[in-house]
Structure formats: C-alpha cells, structure tokens
Design goal:
Layout (H helix, E strand, L loop, with lengths): L2 E5 L2 E3 L5 E8 L5 E9 L6 E7 L4 E3 L7 E6 L4 E6 L8 E11 L1 E6 L3 E5 L2
Parallel strand pairs: 2-11
Antiparallel strand pairs: 1-3, 3-8, 4-5, 4-9, 5-6, 7-8, 9-10, 9-11
Length: about 120
C-alpha cells in the first residue's frame, strides 16, 4: 500500500513563499514520476510541476521561473518551492506518484490548501 502525505500549505501574502513537501511510503516499485497538481474552486485539476525518473522536470507556463520542484530519492520525498506567489496560485495542491510495474498506477495525496491573499 503506497501512501502520500503532503505538508507545507497555508496562508501567505502576495509575493511570499511557501515550500510544499510530499513523502511517499510503502512498497514502491517501478518509480516513473512524481509531481504536483492543483485545483482551484470551479476549475479543473492542472499540472503544476513534475519530476521524472530520468531527472527531467516540466512546469506549467504559469509557474515557470517562480516554482521549483526537487526530489530526495533517499527519503522518497518531492518538494515544491513556491516563490513570488500570486492570488491566482490559490488552490488545493496535490502530490501524485506514478509507477509502472507491469501496469501503470497513479497514487494521490490528500491535498494541501495554499491561499495567497493580503
């Protein structure tokens, strides 16, 4: 059973920073990618940033230059450093782990709220 536990969300003023963490536990075989998604009220869930097995990273255009995703393999943890936050970044942020071990499996965290407001 794979579990993802997110932390680090909260309330921050525009221009501020937050760092999200997502720790994966359990039997993880065939790691493929780990990333962050977000869902704002009334909107679809969207990709924010992803880190693949080969070490490549991809970002949504809206966060390029402001957000940085990183991964600690020893801790099975992925981080999202968010700088220069804007009110439009307000959303519930979800962590996702994708494994391919015979079949593909996607695992989601419970989500953490990020609110950017003055």
């Amino acid at each position: 059973q794979v579990q993802l536990v997110e932390s680090g969300g909260g309330l921050v003023q525009p221009g501020g920073s937050l760092r999200l963490s997502c720790a994966a536990s359990g039997s993880i075989f065939g790691f493929n990618a780990m990333g962050w998604y977000r869902q704002a009220p009334g909107k679809q869930r969207e990709l924010v940033a992803i880190n693949t097995r080969g070490g490549s990273t991809n970002y949504a255009d809206s966060v390029k230059g402001r957000f940085t995703i990183s991964r600690d393999n020893a801790k099975n943890t992925v981080y999202l450093q968010m700088n220069s936050l804007k009110p439009d970044d307000t959303a519930v942020y979800y962590c996702k782990l994708t494994t391919i071990w015979g079949a593909r499996n996607d695992y989601w965290g419970q989500g953490t709220q990020v609110t950017v407001s003055s």
